[in-house]
Amino acid sequence: MTTVSTHKGVQIGEPSVEVTTLDYVDEIIEIGTGDLETEHNVSMEEITFNSDYVDNLDLLVGGEEVS
Questions:
Q1: How far apart are alpha carbons 57 and 65 in whole angstroms?
Q2: Does residue 5 sit in helix, strand or coil?
Q3: What is the pTM of this model?
């Protein structure tokens, strides 16, 4: 079975593959207990565009069709 760890929808680390063994395995398992820090960068830019309105008799009054 392959397991993928995520934090807020972003993959953390590499996928891990679980292997089931029948023999006793003596090993130390370390578990992370530290806090994860997430950095968010948000930028906004004004986008210039033009809207052309054309009368269409097939539409209901007040209706709009975007194409």
A1: 12
A2: strand
A3: 0.25
Would you state the structure tokens that stand for residue 53, as one six-digit string? 């309105």
Nearest one of 41, 27, 47, 35 to 7, comparing CA atoms: 35
Residue 12: which H helix or E strand, with range?
strand 10-17
Phi, psi angles (nearest 5°) of residue 13: 70, -165
Return the amino acid letter for 29: I
Which amino acid belongs to residue 35?
D
CA distance 48 to 32: 47
pLDDT along the chain (67 residues), means of 10: 77 76 75 76 84 87 84
